[in-house]
Amino acid sequence: MEVTEMKNISIEELKEKAIEMRQTAVTMIHKAQSGHPGGSLSAADIMTALYFKEMNIDPKNPNYEDRDRFVLSKGHVCPIQYSALALLGYVPYETIYTLREYGSPFQGHPDMKKCPGIDISTGSLGQGLSCGVGMAIAGKRDKKDYRVFSLVGDGECQEGQIWEAAQTAVKYQLDNLVVFVDNNRLQIDGFCDEIMPLQDVEKKFEAFGFETKRIDGHSMEDIVETLDEIRELKNGKPKCIVLDTVKGKGVSYMEDIAEWHGVAPNDEEYQQAMEELAGGLK
Amino acid sequence: MSIIEKALTTKKATREAFGDEIVKLGKENKDIYVIDVDIAKSCKTSTFIKELPNQHINVGIAEQNAAGLAAGLATTGKIPFVSTYAVFGSLRMAEQIRQEVCYPNLNVKIACSHGGLTPANDGGSHQAIEDMGVLRSFPNMTVIMGADYQSTRKLVEQAAKINGPVYLRFTRDKVPMLYDETEEFTIGKAKQLKDGKDIAIIANGDTVHLALEATKELEKQGVSVKLLDMHTIKPIDRDAVVECLELGRIITVEDHNILNGLGSAVSEVVAEEGKGKVKRIGVQDQFGQSAPYEKLLELNGITVENIVRTANEML
Description:
Number of strands of chain B: 14
Number of strands of chain A: 7
CATH superfamily of the largest domain in chain B: Thiamin diphosphate (ThDP)-binding fold, Pyr/PP domains
Mean pLDDT of chain A: 96
CATH superfamily of chain A: Thiamin diphosphate (ThDP)-binding fold, Pyr/PP domains
CATH class of the largest domain in chain B: Alpha Beta
Number of domains of chain B: 2
Radius of gyration of chain A: 17 Å
Structural class of chain B: alpha/beta
Strand content of chain B: 15-25%
Oligomer: heterodimer
Number of helices of chain A: 11
Largest sheet of chain A: 5 strands, parallel
């Protein structure tokens, strides 16, 4: 089965996949002339590691009961998730040219009823993690081995519901739940620290009772090592991995620029982005 | 004995019906879950917690999280009932219900005590007068309020069998028991309590017994009344409303704002049919206050006398 082959993928191969992931996401946003490139690029490396190595999933059988679940709580960065689904064959690759079009499985925000491989519809910030907690509780109660992975934004952690979900994950000892914070320090209106400072997000999750770690979210080596470390860690604690990332990572003119949160590149910018991305991360 | 002849002597809160029925359902089906938000005791889920702890989750005072968590459970095949007060179950978690329950059409039930003016002495903050209207406007949502203990049990049982979102609203206070155990109820089908030729009264929830008393009074005065218990306001039983139009006059009665609830749902059908007249009795687009439940009903004209008076004005 394809799933087993993916498990043996090397770090170098993952880095190559991350290039394809970034290029695919930028291509779909360019074609649609709409979408969220900044956060899609900051999340690209963790998404690559999860979809091509870590998660127990089967693109040919997207809903099989014992699969690992993925909840994109920051639903607007779905282009990067759609890239994984397209590259893995959940949908034909050409689907990427239909982002945000009428009838497309690739809706503006993830829609579980329209797109195979989406475990829960998201898009309104702060809500996805609660759904992940529900899935993880069901896994525990049913004595299933599956895990639940959720990606939340640092800006998204301004939503109170994230913390309601966090306290519930700790109460129900959900060591089958892993929360990744895409700590790219930017939100639509500017730097998170100026809009509403999050303080030390790792310490916050730790204080709630999570097993936490903070890593370079663009180092495939660090990501893979961390995923290896926590895979069998059954200590009754949910996990939180804070990923220090750069919004727009890999496209020089987008990096650290809040304005690239939800704007599509024009033709010229697109060409430049594709060329820069082809070389991999520096 | 017909329901019209029956003396309404026994009373029970419909939240008790939920508490009793959910235990039965949970024992029959291990996928039935209850999610509490700290107010288990007053929502009557204490027996469920005691007897089915493995199917119970209490998230504390965090309603928004409860709705999302329920959606997550539903994706794994569970049938979660989120149990709270109507004001929180419709408003505090409205967007979570919209985004994570109704939008993906997941099998989540929102089961709410303290509907309408029934949390009377708690005051205006706790009286849910907008809830059914809010949830009626979400695609995929079914909206129900049973009139008494037995009908509420049957409707809760049926809600568990529907694969999709359902909002159920219960009373905190005791209301008269109208129906026998043997009566059947179908979600989306009005229950006709009496046929008549002069005027139709359509009521739901805790006002059905008032409509019933008003019907008895009107019959004494020689007015022939058709009486319906419209326990489901969405989907509204269109055929039943159209049949009432043959009489040309309809009175709706509800313990809910006259905007967006039963009266509005009936009026929509009537307007589209282009004939007939509707008078709405319900909360007069005003907040409540701490007072005895009956006093609050009276302040809004939700009384037997006002139903009778309104009928006579229309005839």
